[in-house]
Amino acid sequence: MSVQARVVVEDRGIDVSFDVADGETVALLGPNGAGKSTTLAVLGGLLRPDAGQVVLDGQELTGPGRWVAPHARRTALLAQDPLLFPHLSALENVAFGPRSTGTGRRTARAAARHWLAEVDAAELAGRRPARLSGGQAQRVAIARALAAEPRLLLLDEPMAALDVAVAPALRTLLRRVLTGRTTVIVTHHVLDALLLADRVVVIEGGRVAEQGPTAEVLSRPRSAFAARFAGLDLVAGTATPDGVRRPDGLLLHGTLGDPAPRPGADAVAVFRPSAVAAHKEPPGGSPRNALPVTVTELEPLGDLVRVRAGELSADVTVASVAELGLAPGVAVTFVVKATEVDVYAR
């Protein structure tokens, strides 16, 4: 089931367009307030957009003069809260979807048992939601969504409310059951994107900042959010024959990608925080890029400390933090070798 979507919600400043191929999982990424959940609500029929169109497998669900009600779309939305019916057992919760479409009680229960088994929750069939853990309840919610046989599955941060010890198992489960299903997932976790999504769509300020295959976007980001999401540093500017020049005139030398960006065109320089060193003064020597910054935050990373300076970060040792007296407000120079910097067209 393929999807073509354009979502325009004027009072929220959202104008987003993207497609989902049949059987593909697409992750919507972006900062809070970017428009991800709003887009999901429009796809599911929970919100009427001001303009745009949603087409599912050739059927127009939303468009000029056209509006298909949520229950008639055959879409399923799974949110952070499982939202199970508290008065029904897990089995009856899962059977609710087939029953709501007219399936007989016996057949619906058989389908519910099948899907509970698919999500490794068969032994939970007789329990009510109050007797389920967070992870168990979310497994039942996934089974309920799948039992409805949706043409489009919508997932809105399904693991955000789960304990960190539970999330890996549920992520593995989703990777298995989503295979071959047309799915759109909103997530703030890089592992969800890497393990579950075929493609990602990055939304910033209500617009699509970039989109493409997951591995390509997260290894060669062209937007500030995608770089932060992937744990990379990104500097935007214009391409030069050997790097990127920022708007303030600072030049970063780096390795040009293939194809190389045209000189004068918009380009980005991308590098790993682990390749960045912090110095009180810019060092000399081999070709290096020196970026004067002011520390904004320190984040422990095991044996290292991530030193954030606005949009840029450097991973340094605890000893270096102490030696340099690093703290919010301290001015330092981030230094990265030109060989560690990759330059791409934006």
Automatic annotation (TrEMBL):
SUPFAM superfamilies: MOP-like (SSF50331), P-loop containing nucleoside triphosphate hydrolases (SSF52540). The keyword Transport applies. Residues 284-345 form the Mop domain. Residues 3-230 form the ABC transporter domain. GO terms for molecular function: ATP binding; ATP hydrolysis activity. Signal peptide: none annotated. It comes from the Bacteria. InterPro entries: AAA+_ATPase, ABC_SmlMolc_Importer, ABC_transporter-like_ATP-bd, ABC_transporter-like_CS, Mo/tungstate-bd_C_term_dom, Mop_domain, P-loop_NTPase, Transp-assoc_OB_typ1. Keywords: ATP-binding, Molybdenum, Nucleotide-binding, Transport. Pfam families: ABC_tran, TOBE. One of its GO terms (biological process) is molybdate ion transport. This is ABC transporter ATP-binding protein. It comes from Nocardioides albidus.
